[in-house]
């Protein structure tokens, strides 16, 4: 099975609705999920198998999500 999800980025209208903020927040969650799996977990797998890795810097957007949802640690 092949599934395709087409997310073309944020939509920015003159007047945004609650639906739009939900869409943008969902996009942030999906970006976080993909970053974690593509970068962090793949590097951990390589390191656990003794494969040398390089440092990959990317912007971790969990602060955006936490701030929006008012999550405190």
From TrEMBL:
It comes from the Eukaryota. Belongs to the TRAFAC class myosin-kinesin ATPase superfamily. Myosin family. PANTHER family: AGAP011099-PA (PTHR46256), MYOSIN MOTOR DOMAIN-CONTAINING PROTEIN (PTHR46256:SF3). GO terms for biological process: regulation of actin filament length. Pfam families: Myosin_head (PF00063). GO terms for molecular function: actin binding; ATP binding; microfilament motor activity; protein serine/threonine kinase activity. It is found in: Cell projection; Cytoplasm, Cytoskeleton. It comes from Didymodactylos carnosus. This is Myosin motor domain-containing protein. Its main location: other. SUPFAM superfamilies: P-loop containing nucleoside triphosphate hydrolases. Residues 1-73 form the Myosin motor domain.
């Amino acid at each position: 099975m092949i599934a395709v999800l087409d997310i073309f980025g944020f939509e920015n209208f003159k007047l945004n609705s609650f639906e739009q903020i939900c869409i943008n927040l969902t996009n942030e969650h999906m970006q976080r999920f993909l970053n974690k799996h593509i970068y962090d977990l793949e590097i951990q797998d390589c390191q656990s198998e003794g494969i040398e890795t390089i440092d990959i810097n990317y912007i971790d957007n969990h602060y955006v999500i936490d701030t929006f949802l008012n999550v405190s640690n």
